[in-house]
Amino acid sequence: MRVDLHNHTYLCKHASGTIESYILxxxxxxxxxxxxxxxxxxxxxxxxxxxFEEFDEYTKEVLRLKQKYQDKxxxxxxxxxxxxxxxxxxLDKRLLDTPLDYLIGSVHFLDDWGFDNPExxxxxxxxNMRECWMExxxxxxxxxxxxxxxxVGHFDLLKVFNHTPPKEVFFKIQxxxxxxxxxxxxxxxxxxxxxKPIGEQYPSREILQEAYNLGVYITFGSDAHQQEHxxxxxxxxxxxxxxxGYHQAVFFRNKKRxxxxx
Length: 262
Known about the structure:
By secondary structure, this protein is of the alpha/beta class. The protein has seven helices and eleven strands. The strands form three sheets. The protein has a seven-stranded parallel sheet. The chain has a two-stranded antiparallel ribbon with strand order 5-6. Helix 5 links the parallel strand 7 (151-152) and strand 8 (186-190). The longest helix is centred in the middle third of the chain and has 17 residues, at 129-145.
């Protein structure tokens, strides 16, 4: 079975194509279960996400198309939510209480720095990367401990512009993976890094091997922002997962976990 849980829509303002076009592409790619997880609306970073008043449009359109294509593919409805420990009030209770299939928790900011946005790449010259990695990993840890999310998005995203984690922070990576295992939060293998300057999926092979050793669940996601991204890099990610020992992954319906063979 083939599952793809991390995909966006035009409503996030930095993706293109219709929701239906993504579904048609997923059907063509032979994907069995396809999840939409567009960026959550919030009163922050509003340039790159849907507005609160568009959330109903998002849910209604995904559910309409879920019904339309139910004989060809299973469509899931979710959100990718930003976790900002210093701004917890931005985790809107209305969204957390909405009956979604799953929530992907992601960290895109260190304090107010959107570190994966090319617009702010100059900030890297001002930062101590060991400190950045420690702060980033602590955010991921707190996110997993919150028990609000079923999946952690792009675990080592901070490497996007080739700032890979230094060896001296690997103990922290192991600590965070242990927290994922303890809280049964899934780690996604996200293909979008293959399209970025790092040229590598999230997470790295080394991290994925440690996740397997610790019994962390995995999922797969294209992180599609264009129709052409749907299913991108899946075979690379699947083979990587199998090479470290994984042969099962998970998906979620109504926030309940299901295990499948891939």
